[in-house]
Amino acid sequence: MIKAAIFGASGYTGLELLRILAIHPQAEVVEATSRQYKGTPVSEVFPALRGFYDELIFSDPEDLGSAAKADVAFSALPHGASQDVVPELLKKSKVIDLSADFRLRDKETYKTWYGEHKAAHLLSEAVYGLPELYRKHIKGGRLIANPGCYPTSAILALTPLAGKGLIKAGSVIIDSKSGVSGAGRGASIATSFVEVTSGFKAYKIGSHRHTPEIEQELTAAAGDGLKVRFTPHLIPVSRGILTTAYAELKDGLTQAELRDIYTEAYSNERFVRLLPEGSFPDISQVRGSNFCDIGLFIEGSRVTIVSAIDNLVKGASGQAVQNMNIMFGLDETAALFTPPLSI
Amino acid sequence: MIKAAIFGASGYTGLELLRILAIHPQAEVVEATSRQYKGTPVSEVFPALRGFYDELIFSDPEDLGSAAKADVAFSALPHGASQDVVPELLKKSKVIDLSADFRLRDKETYKTWYGEHKAAHLLSEAVYGLPELYRKHIKGGRLIANPGCYPTSAILALTPLAGKGLIKAGSVIIDSKSGVSGAGRGASIATSFVEVTSGFKAYKIGSHRHTPEIEQELTAAAGDGLKVRFTPHLIPVSRGILTTAYAELKDGLTQAELRDIYTEAYSNERFVRLLPEGSFPDISQVRGSNFCDIGLFIEGSRVTIVSAIDNLVKGASGQAVQNMNIMFGLDETAALFTPPLSI
Amino acid sequence: MIKAAIFGASGYTGLELLRILAIHPQAEVVEATSRQYKGTPVSEVFPALRGFYDELIFSDPEDLGSAAKADVAFSALPHGASQDVVPELLKKSKVIDLSADFRLRDKETYKTWYGEHKAAHLLSEAVYGLPELYRKHIKGGRLIANPGCYPTSAILALTPLAGKGLIKAGSVIIDSKSGVSGAGRGASIATSFVEVTSGFKAYKIGSHRHTPEIEQELTAAAGDGLKVRFTPHLIPVSRGILTTAYAELKDGLTQAELRDIYTEAYSNERFVRLLPEGSFPDISQVRGSNFCDIGLFIEGSRVTIVSAIDNLVKGASGQAVQNMNIMFGLDETAALFTPPLSI
Amino acid sequence: MIKAAIFGASGYTGLELLRILAIHPQAEVVEATSRQYKGTPVSEVFPALRGFYDELIFSDPEDLGSAAKADVAFSALPHGASQDVVPELLKKSKVIDLSADFRLRDKETYKTWYGEHKAAHLLSEAVYGLPELYRKHIKGGRLIANPGCYPTSAILALTPLAGKGLIKAGSVIIDSKSGVSGAGRGASIATSFVEVTSGFKAYKIGSHRHTPEIEQELTAAAGDGLKVRFTPHLIPVSRGILTTAYAELKDGLTQAELRDIYTEAYSNERFVRLLPEGSFPDISQVRGSNFCDIGLFIEGSRVTIVSAIDNLVKGASGQAVQNMNIMFGLDETAALFTPPLSI
After folding, report:
1. Do residues D271 and D283 make contact, with C-beta atoms less than 8 angstroms apart?
2. Interior CA angle at D20 toward D17 and D24, to 5°?
3. Are residues C161 and C263 in the same domain?
4. Is B204 exposed, middle or buried (0-12, 13-18, 19+ CB in 10 A)?
5. Statement: residue C66 has pLDDT above 80
6. Of the N and C termini of chain B, which has fewer Cβ atoms inside 10 Å?
7. H-run or E-run covering A321
8. A343, C283: Cβ pair inside 8 Å?
9. What is the helix (H) or strand (E) element at residue D112, kind and residue range?
10. Would you call D15 and A343 a contact, using CB atoms and an 8 Å cutoff?
11. Residue D322, domain member (yes or no)
């Protein structure tokens, strides 16, 4: 059994790691830290888990020594906090970091969007943990930077086109909509039930920190600078991201040609489901699962690609477990190939 | 124009007072206090109100002097805090208190459930502001204790029977379900969207502070001690309380006799709507309105009475405005007789 | 009192007309037809309205003669059905048609998107009922084609720029999101609670019938063909449309210049609320009201305009009443200037 | 591998059987019938299942011959329809019937609530499929009558007390609240998103067909007639039933004594989770799982027992799979011991 430790386990991505790893046949959670709940049984904070982790008690994150027993450490700490502990964790185990801290390869870009990096020497080593793009690097990786939720949905939607060099510069618009769990588990009026439940809004227009992450990966695929206009919105559901991505191509394609490109990219991917022509994804159909559903539309040179993921699974903890499976040579789908809870 | 001041105006009952008074033909809000938002325009905190109170800025609650300009002061402060300012406010204006501070006539009962009272000398003067029971007292009142949301729904459901002395002691069960706005506007994990939206639960079984308020009024109606078992639940909606009240009667009644009792009680009440036989209320059908809908069911000596209100309107701010209308000799329905936003 | 008849009154736009007209000081509903519910009291079908229309019974739509008593007839019938009755109605009263039947000025465009028109001779007479653009024509109009919900949100968002000739052809993307009531009141699995409540999806990509309506009005404003890419989505809320509109301008503008253009267009409009810089609309803040909130963002020559309306009010029945007010020389805001039910 | 056939597989209990059996290590679905969708691939009707049943096509239910290949047939047909096919199915395989058709042991009671039974000769053979009560009978059973959703929640809440003979006759009140999926998958205005999403109501007061089923089992446990007052309500969520059960005991008990009774009843049950003192269940904490969470409260002789299940899992398809596991000698928890999707 692979022994896993989860740092910052009392947030939603922590809960989701616990939920997924509970049914993993070859891994077990040996430690879960929480500053807020240290000393409290996990099943008291998360009653849904009663019966699964009855011996597990949230431990003090200061007590890093205990991570020694783990083969892999998941950091579900907030960005900024993660870089404080990752260098230490790396001395003892492989690390999968769910924060934004090691996703941007360029130190200056990180500084522009997040501030000074305290462990910048690790940026070049970190592998961007999107298996559909970097499976081989992940396999040999020691530090995995688990992708952001919006970037996962946007990059999977557009890299097949970007990778072929088909996208016209300056034409990409990414209109994304996320469920409320994306804001994390924490008390705030802005994410309270009453404020959110009948609402829908755009936020951080032109300034969301996932923008450089999306641009980094699309640029890497295209081999040329690809700037995007990214607008996130808040949907009154717990889980799910739907991304409606618009781009203009350098040349027109037929529906069939467009489909071929995506089929080539994803036909061997177990977690990407390309929908038939005329079908488009619904976040409910991926809910609770590690799938990314993708639908395609083209008129002349203008494409609309729609993708749907569960932000907590393929957009966070499921992808992290997928990365763990790859790193340790397990079946990549272990604990992950379960049907969505669509209703 | 009647000049109204609202103390603690940045919570949901404050917002609701502002919303209702915005269309009142004979009243205007001249002051709204908020410790948290003092100095901030009301329409910045509540963008829905943009265009209605563009000159109104939240003022400092410490600055009680400004209340001098008001004919009536609404206190939407939390219980405990309200009793600190009400004595002072009463020197200058009539007061309608939306907190629990002046609802219990018995000082000892207050102490048992809430702790020591700091203005207990006012308890005997305060009028329990349920117009259907105390209209005449409200008209002449100086200090109105606006009823709690659960009590409004429970008391309107059961007083017609209690008032006839028909209810068997010890038989009353009040199973109530409330929308999340009943918990107030504040940051907490327990009322965050993600925690609440797919849930439903009972809470404070046997210990909710609205219990003595319900018992006080049912006992007053019955002329004899009427204890109740009260179980509140949380519904994943913003607004609305549905109360399913069960009681055993001393003797059996026919459906027609039961109906006659309620018709006699409420046929002249503009805000109580007695539903036809076989129809039962739905909180959506009173949403945003001051109505209390009531449905009746009887089998032998066992009655089930179902009532529905909007907890923020008939259960709080609408009833407060109804009380203001009565106190100042206005049309009781002014600003209040509007159709529910049922969808 | 202006006498109003509502044809097809048992759908959601019918319910909404009834809700709004219930508080109109100078209008009353004298007739409401419904094929499905003829002979049934209105308050039995819509219990929320109990107390407001207690004498009103749904009448048979075949019995057009009864419309003779009305000064204005609202047709809330589906498109296709409306054109069957509007010619007859026009003989007796002014008509405000909430269907799509008279919105497109070009018969051929209508045919392409909807099929053969049965009353095409009225297309040239019909006035497109968007008061912010056509107030003078509405005032003198006999037949008003009340705008679609998506078009209202998109046109109000973009006409100030289109009207100045600033928008680059081919650059407009309209990513709209609507609440479920936009699909009408009817039994279908697709709009059932369980299917919708945890979902979010795009639909009718590139083929929604509101596309030509949006293009007609933007083109009229620009004086030149303006094609748009329009993608509607479904939000799990009852009410509200948020439109995120993207365009590229022929030349760059500063934030201040952009704001000046919108201020000029809307500063005298009571129902358009231009939000301050950095603020963006939320559908909850216009819920139940006739407002359209607009937020502006620009980077270089790329603008993102976000608008929010309640699809049933400014997107349908509220705008219809606004048109009635204009046609009959009443205060344009009568029955409409009420605060949103934001929570 | 056990071969399973599902009759009436295109409803929500059918979908849920498909979802659960997809991860069952020792069972596979070889046939799924649907009158409405015959000839259509399962994954087209239920896109969430894409990747799991890509070869499975809904077959014609008339074609009963094909069930020959199955070891077990699940009937997810509506009551009334199920009794038409079960006798035939029984000739070829074991049968687990999710309808109400074989739950009532008394033919006359069935007739009173549902009408004439067409396969009444099977009523005495059918085993009531609540494993916590009838595990041994299920093991040897040929025809399992899978319990109703409300009865599962009510019976698990009260049988420990009923079985001890502690409950006072006539004192039981069962106030239950169910998510909308309990109404099945079908087009109706009453269960449409817009009608339900902001609502909460009681329905079928005193007349719901689950009443005799609850009374049958509580009476069987008590050895004496136990009548109940049962009031179902509708919660605006997809899944979950919360039952708040009230009873008066013949004698008072302490909290500890009450707890001992439930501990004795359920300590060996993997799917019943007894919550610690002061904790009460929330439907979100059992969502998507086969658990029944139970919380206890007592004051003198008055108990309040709160139970929560997922109506589609422990209240239907999960319990059906649990019964299959028992009948075939498998691990009772196979495919079922997974953590709830609490958020």
Report:
1. no
2. 120
3. yes
4. middle
5. no
6. N
7. helix A318-327
8. no
9. helix D107-114
10. yes
11. no
Tokens representing D335 are: 């495919």
Q: HEC profile for C168-207?
A: CCCCEEEEEEECHHHHCCCCCHHHEHHHHCCCCEECCCCC
Of the candidates A287, A317, A291, the residue with the CA atom closest to the CA atom of residue A98: A317
Q: Are residues B165 and B107 in the same domain?
A: no
For residue B19, pLDDT beyond 70: yes
D247 Cβ contact list (under 8 Å, min separation 6):
D158, D161, D167, D168, D171, D172, D173, D302, D303, D305
Contact B326, B138 (CB under 8 A): yes
Total number of domains in chain A = 2
Residue B71, number of CB atoms within 10 A of its CB: 17
Q: Which helix (H) or strand (E) holds C12?
A: helix C12-21
Task: Identify the bridge partners of residue C6 per DSSP, sorted by sequence position.
Answer: C32, C74
Q: Which of residues 229-288 of D touch C (CB under 8 A)?
A: 236-238
Complex-level ipTM beyond the 0.95 threshold: yes
Q: Where does residue B139 rank: exposed (0-12), middle (13-18), buried (19+ CB within 10 A)?
A: middle
User: A203: which chain C residues are within 8 Å (Cβ-Cβ)?
Assistant: 280
Residue B64 clears pLDDT 90, i.e. is over it: no
Chains touching chain C, criterion 3+ CB pairs below 8 Å: A, B, D
C117 and C162 part of one domain: no
> Residues A197, A53: one domain?
no
Range of the domain at B103: 2-125
Chain centre to alpha carbon of residue D219? 19
Please return the burial class of C228, using the count of CB atoms within 10 Å of its CB with bins 0-12, 13-18 and 19+.
buried
Same domain, D93 and D161: no
Chain A nearest-CA residue for D342: A48
The CATH number for A247's domain is 3.30.360.10
DSSP string of B20-33? Answer: HHTT-TTEEEEEEB
> For residue C65, which of C91, C29, C37, C97 has the smallest C-alpha distance?
C91
How large is the average pLDDT for residues C26-45?
A: 97
| Spatial CA neighbour of C174 closest among C217, C134, C130, C133 | C217
Same domain assignment for residues B290 and B154: yes
Residue A172 is given by DSSP the state: E
B232-246 pLDDT, tens per residue?
999 999 999 999 999
Q: What was the pLDDT predicted at B146? A: 98
Q: Does residue B198 sit at the D interface (CB-CB below 8 Å)?
A: yes
Q: In b/e form, how buried is each residue of C230-250, taking b as 16+ CB within 10 angstroms?
A: bbbbbbbbbbbbbbbbbbbbe
Confidence of residue D63 (pLDDT cuts 50, 70, 90): confident
User: Rounded CA gap, D305 and C73, in Å?
Assistant: 56
Query: Reduced to 3 states, what is the DSSP secondary structure of residue A273?
Result: strand
Tokens of B318: 């609408």
Whose structure tokens read 């949380």? B234
The answer to whether A198 touches C284, Cβ cutoff 8 Å, is yes
Is B37 in the same domain as B74?
yes
Q: What is the mean pLDDT of residues C225-233?
A: 96
CA distance D158 to D229: 13
Q: What integer pLDDT is reported at residue D98 of this predicted model?
A: 98
Where is B241: in which H helix or E strand? strand B241-248
Q: Find the catalytic residue in C49, C95, C126, C149.
A: C149
Q: d(Cα C260, Cα C84) in Å, to the nearest integer?
A: 45
pLDDT tens, residue by residue, B256-297: 999 999 999 999 999 999 999 999 999 999 999 999 999 999
Residue with tokens 């033909």: B25
Assess whether A245 and A171 both reside in one domain: yes
Which pTM was predicted? 0.97
In chain A, the residue whose alpha carbon lies closest to the alpha carbon of B192 is A192
Residue D127 tokens, joined: 């085993």
Per DSSP bridges, beta strands D302-309 and D2-7 are unpaired
